[in-house]
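Quick one: co-fold with iron/sulfur cluster.
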Amino acid sequence: MAEKLLTKTEADKLFGKLKKEYPNVTYYLNFKTPLQLLVCAILSAQTRDEVVNKATPELFKHFNSTKDFANADPEDINQYIKSITFFQTKSSNIIKTCKAIEEKYNGKIPKTMEELTSLPGIGRKTANTILINAFDIVNGIPVDTWVIKLSNRMGLTKNKNPDKIELDLMNILKKEDWSKAAYIFKAHGKKVCQSSIPLCSTCVLKDICPKNNITKSK
Ligand code: SF4
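Sure, here it is.
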């Protein structure tokens, strides 16, 4: 657990440094439509981005609409996503979700948090991801494992529950930073604030971060 929580001013400074460090960061899964993004987001749970990005072009050649997915036999989908963790559960969730979108929303991906989270297999993280990246609607912050780990290390929250962390981050970060926050944390986690051994001595946040391990044990 972080030694202390940052103030808003400190958080501003910290996030400003991160934005400078990662100016061009974007969402990491490849998609062309809101439906493709929804499918990518379901497939990406506990699976590396590269694996999802490798599998989806062939899948999307054969499935173009919610109707296509809703009417599919799971095996029709599975043949394209076998490299993905828990592919059978995920194909079943994609079919259920697309059936619900067909029935309740006329085949259109809904644009509100309430509607999206009413769909099978869609939680706040995925709903925020879809709203931000497919519709440019920013009402929250997607909280993934990188956000959980780094926001605790950086003293932006003391919570482990993703919904509570999202609220803490929404309170402490400027709204203009919400849409990129998750992708910036991930970029910093992969490059510097790594899961097992954070490289604090080379980190641009070493003067602000309460979890800096240079002078004290982690
Ligand atoms: S100082 Fe260390 S713990 Fe803090 S963000 Fe940088 S690498 Fe992570």
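If it helps, The chain has two domains: 8-25+141-202, 34-135.
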